[in-house]
Amino acid sequence: MAAVARTLTRSLPRAAFRANAQPTFRFAAAKQFSMSARALEKRYTEDHEWIDLPSGQSIATVGISTYAAKALGDVVYVELPTVDTEVTLGDSIGAVESVKSASDILTPVTGKVVEANSALEEQPSTINKSPEGDGWVAKIEVTNAAELEGLMDEAAYKSFSEEADS
Amino acid sequence: MYTEADPGKTALYDLHLEYGAKMVQFGGYNMPVSYSDLSVGESHAWTRERASIFDVGHMVQYHVEGPGAEAFLESLTPAGLKDLPSGQNGLSTLLLPQTGGIVDDCIITRLGAGPQHLFYLVTNAGCREKDYDFLSASLQKWNDNTINPVAHLRHLQNDVGQSYGLIALQGPLSAQILKNALHPACRVDLDKWYFGTAKYITLTLPSGGGKGESQPIVASRGGYTGEDGFELSIPPSQTVDVTRALLQSAGPDKLRFAGLGARDSLRLEAGMCLYGHDLDETVTPVEAALSWIIPKSRRTAENASFNGAETIIPQLTPTSKGGAGVSRRRVGLTVQGAPAREGGVIVDTEGTEVGKVTSGCPSPTLKQNIAMGYVKNGLHKSGTELAVVIRGKQRKAVVTKMPFVSSKYWKGGVTPG
Q1: Closest alpha carbon to A145 in A47, A40, A35
Q2: Residues on chain B touching A79 (C-beta within 8 angstroms)
Q3: Rounded to whole angstroms, what are the CA distances from A78 to A56, A63, A72?
Q4: How many alpha carbons lie under 13 Å from residue A138 in its C-beta half-sphere?
Q5: Count of C-beta atoms within a 10 Å radius of residue B362
Q6: CA dist., res. B299 & res. B316, Å (int)
Q7: Which end of chain A is more exposed for a tag (fewer CB within 10 A), N or C?
Q8: How many pairs of residues across A and B have Cβ atoms under 8 Å apart?
Q9: CA–CA separation, A125 and B271 (whole Å)
Q10: Closest to A137 (Cα-Cα) out of A150, A119, A152
Q11: Nearest to B151 by CA among B74, B261, B212
Q12: CB contact under 8 A, B338 and A92
């Protein structure tokens, strides 16, 4: 969701964005990770992807956040990753296109793409209807689960995206 | 001068917020990109089926007047102003000397006939500062030459510096909506008011005091969507009242606000250029497929006196016929699979780069991906098969005649087109 992030940050004082928001979230997320029994509930990136890695498993589901889907507007085309592709954290694994913009989907983790949600090819609008459910984009076999530690939990992401809106 | 750090507001800023606008910066102004009632795609469809109001008050409006106004403007643009009747307008371009590069595109309307010529000029918000510098410097040079009859340039604003409002009423219901909003004292015949014509009108203003009649508004039939419509230049103190009067008299079943999001996809379907993307100072009107804005009368040795004519006139004749021709041309493209966007590399069937995309989006009306771009001369004919590289993959692209969606201008008995 690089383009969405760019659009949103443009209207914000960049320094405030970087200096205050990010380290706080990072800290909070890391702390929770080490203490929680269900170690990794759904996490969010600053680029507005979500990743869900159920406890004890190695395959994570990745998609774009409800906030991002709303900011994009009507999704008319989704480019999906190719199954079996090895990806590194931050790589573009696909794209979401609305009338007004194209946004890359960046993988929050390193690993291998094991499944892509091909239903989105026929019904791209599923991303708008259910961005964090049926509108998932890819399943990735995670190499290093520790990469999720730096990501925001739901509460942190909520205040992050609310700040982007203000 | 407004900047990105200190964006300007049009007179309608508060009204936009009242209608749930999402504001973004554009051309140094805070402008609505969409409104909470309709998504960009829905607003686009609404404009094609009913009618929308766009605030285009960020654009820059000038009067150019005086005995030298016609000749002065003809020195900067290839427009045929000598033959332009009063009340008529047309698309033109401000041109650089020698190279003929496009400084900006503009609409020029003749409001008053000679000898005291009066022209109304509308230019782009994104070029505000540069156009002003260009026009001022050119005018000074013009007036310094005592052979030239004098011309004056005036930005349209009131005595406290507020710019005139500019709104675009666009869509098939536009004429009906405008007709219902006219003040009874304003007798214009909408059926005989054709595309490319401007008139002075007045509207009924519920808030308008005494007779409830607005001040005179210069309204031009045309716009930037390909639909029938009108652009209204409104005295600063009444911009809000006029906009409200239109919205209220038409009602929300017919007329809604639309933002820059829908404006961009509508103009692209209509095959119209966006300056800074599809046009810039490195491009001549011939390369930009805008040769049609240069009438025959301006192509003769005697009358091709505009900036850059020495470059542009030879380009009008292809090399095969002994002219200079051009090496690239603006074309329309229909792209398969993913939508092409600005900056996308256009390649030929062998994978060799032959141009770049300058605008692109999925067309809400056609449900296929459309784009504009520049390709090597020779590859510009409709039906030519090319490809656009999108995220590393080549997507088939076919050169397509523009407009992508046929225009529905009001031309009376003349076939729309």
Answers
A1: A40
A2: 338, 391
A3: 30, 11, 12
A4: 29
A5: 25
A6: 9
A7: C
A8: 49
A9: 27
A10: A119
A11: B74
A12: no
Indicate if the pLDDT at residue A21 is higher than 50.
no
- Pairing relationship of beta strands A86-87 and A111-116 according to DSSP bridges: antiparallel
Q: Rounded to a whole number, what is the distance in Å from the CA of A125 to chain B's nearest CA?
A: 12
What is the rounded distance in angstroms from the CA atom of residue A53 to the CA atom of residue A136? Answer: 13
* Closest in A7, A79, A98 to B391, CB measured: A79
Helix residue spans in chain A (DSSP H): 2-10, 14-16, 22-35, 66-72, 119-122, 126-129, 154-165
pLDDT averaged per 10 residues in sequence order, chain B, 417 residues: 76 98 93 95 97 97 97 98 96 98 98 90 96 97 96 93 95 98 95 97 81 94 98 97 97 98 97 98 98 97 95 96 97 96 97 98 96 98 97 96 97 60
- Alpha-carbon dihedral A23, A24, A26, A31, rounded to 10 degrees: 140
Residues in chain A with CB shorter than 8 Å from the CB of B25 are 10-11
- Classify B55 as helix, strand or coil: strand
Residue B142: what residue type?
W
Interface test with B, best of A93, A99, A123 (most B CBs within 10 A): A99
* HEC sequence for B81-129: HHHCCCCEEEEEEEECCCCCCEEEEEEEEEEECCCCCEEEEEECHHHHH
pLDDT per residue over A71-127, tens digit each? 888 899 999 999 999 999 999 999 999 988 889 999 999 999 999 999 999 999 999
- Which phi and psi (to 5°) does residue A162 adopt? -65, -35
Cα B267 from Cα B118, distance rounded (Å): 29
Q: Which of B114, B105, B107 has the alpha carbon at shortest distance from B82?
A: B114
Place of tokens 């909003």: B181
pLDDT the model gives residue B210: 57
Determine the angle formed by the axes of helices A154-165 and A2-10, rounding to 10 degrees.
50
Residue A80 CA, chain-centre distance (Å), reads: 14
Helix (H) or strand (E) run with residue B131 in it: helix B128-144
Residue among B340, B364, B326 nearest B43 (CA): B364
CA distance A72 to A48: 11
Between A10, A74, A95, which is nearest B39 by CB? A74
Q: Which residue, among B312, B317, B324, has the nearest Cα to B76 in the 3D structure?
A: B312
φ and ψ of B312, to 5 deg: -75, -45
When CB atoms are compared, the residue of B25, B362, B391 closest to A76 is B362
- Tokens for B74, please give them: 């003809």
